[in-house]
Structures are given as C-alpha cells and as structure tokens.
UniProtKB/TrEMBL annotation:
The chain holds residues 71 to 221 of 221 of the full protein. ATP binds at K11, F59, R87, T93, R104, N114. GO terms for molecular function: ATP binding; nucleoside diphosphate kinase activity. The keyword Nuclease does not apply. Residues 3-140 form the Nucleoside diphosphate kinase-like domain. It catalyses: a ribonucleoside 5'-diphosphate + ATP = a ribonucleoside 5'-triphosphate + ADP; a 2'-deoxyribonucleoside 5'-diphosphate + ATP = a 2'-deoxyribonucleoside 5'-triphosphate + ADP. This is Nucleoside diphosphate kinase.
Length: 151
C-alpha cells in the first residue's frame, strides 16, 4: 500500500552533527511523503517506552540516557514498503556493517552513535507512531507528485 507508515527518528547525534536536512532529503528524494515531524527532547519515560523491547539488555541504560540527552527529530514517513525500505536506507544497526550509500554506512562508526531510528515492522511502526504522535499531529494529504512516483 502507498499508505504504509514508518516512524523514523533522527537521534541527538544526528541533530548535533547537522544531518537533519541530509536525512530528510534522502526520504523525500526517494519519493516518500512526510506526514509528521517535530523536534523534542524526549523524557526518560518516552525513551524507555520507545526502546521497551531492549529493557534488561546491557546497553539499555546507555541507549535511553543518550536518547534523552538532546534533541530528537521524530517523523512519520508514508509510502510503499516504507518500513522495510526505510531500514534499507538506514543500514545495519552496527554502522561498520552498514553498506556505503546507507545513512549509517555513510556517516556513522559506533553503534551508540548510529544517528537514526526506523521501525522494524508493521506492529512496531504502529506502536511507535502512537507513542510519539497524537493523531492530530499527522497530516493527511495527497502529494502532487503521487502519479509521478507511483504508476
Ligand atoms: P536498530 O536501531 O537498528 O533497530 P536495535 O533495535 O537492535 O537496532 O537496537 C536499538 C539501538 O540500541 C541501536 O540503534 C543501537 C543500540 N544497540 C543495539 N545493539 C547494541 C549492542 N549490542 N551494543 C550497544 N548498543 C546497541
Ligand atoms: Mg530497532
């Protein structure tokens, strides 16, 4: 469906390093549609809820502390297979295992500074979008380029 949605977030390292426009450009140029965006410094409750699946793992405290340490650009992107292909654009969790051409492959080295989050499946996408956004913060619209991106 061209209506599939993924939660994509630029983490504090990406914001501090001036990568907001670069990352947004990549999704925009692909043909995906931005339907939600905000910049927030998440509190610990939000960070822990976001990364709930990793609770108890050795890196959990570092991970949630880092997410709460600064600005996060939270976004919802829409388009055909945006969840799976968004992950392809982002690259592997370990940037040193990410292919060149991916966001993490092009810009990152350490796992704890891998700059960007993307939902890993339909259930996590739905859960994360609901966690970070009110329904009224999501824009419903048809892109003027719709028929030039989709046949
Ligand atoms: P991803 O962000 O690719 O979905 P994930 O959900 O497995 O990866 O983990 C969330 C974040 O936690 C990841 O972006 C970086 C950090 N992380 C994951 N595994 C780690 C590990 N083994 N050591 C340190 N940090 C890790
Ligand atoms: Mg993940």
């Amino acid at each position: 469906s061209t209506k599939e949605r993924s939660f994509i977030a630029i983490k504090p390292d990406g914001v501090h390093r001036g990568m907001i426009s670069n990352i947004i450009s990549r999704f925009e140029q692909k043909g995906y549609k931005l339907v939600g965006i905000k910049v927030i410094v998440p509190g610990m409750d939000l960070a822990k809820a976001h990364y709930a699946e990793h609770e108890g793992k050795p890196f959990f405290n570092k991970l949630t502390s880092f997410l709460t340490s600064g600005p996060v650009v939270a976004m919802v992107w829409e388009g055909k297979e945006v969840i799976k292909y968004g992950r392809t654009m982002i690259g592997a969790t370990n940037p040193l295992a990410s292919a060149p051409g991916t966001i993490r492959g092009d810009f990152c080295v350490d796992m704890g500074r891998n700059m960007i989050h993307g939902s890993d499946g339909p259930e996590s996408a739905q859960r994360e979008i609901a966690l970070w956004f009110q329904p009224s913060e999501i824009a419903e619209y048809e892109s003027a380029t719709q028929s030039w991106v989709y046949e």
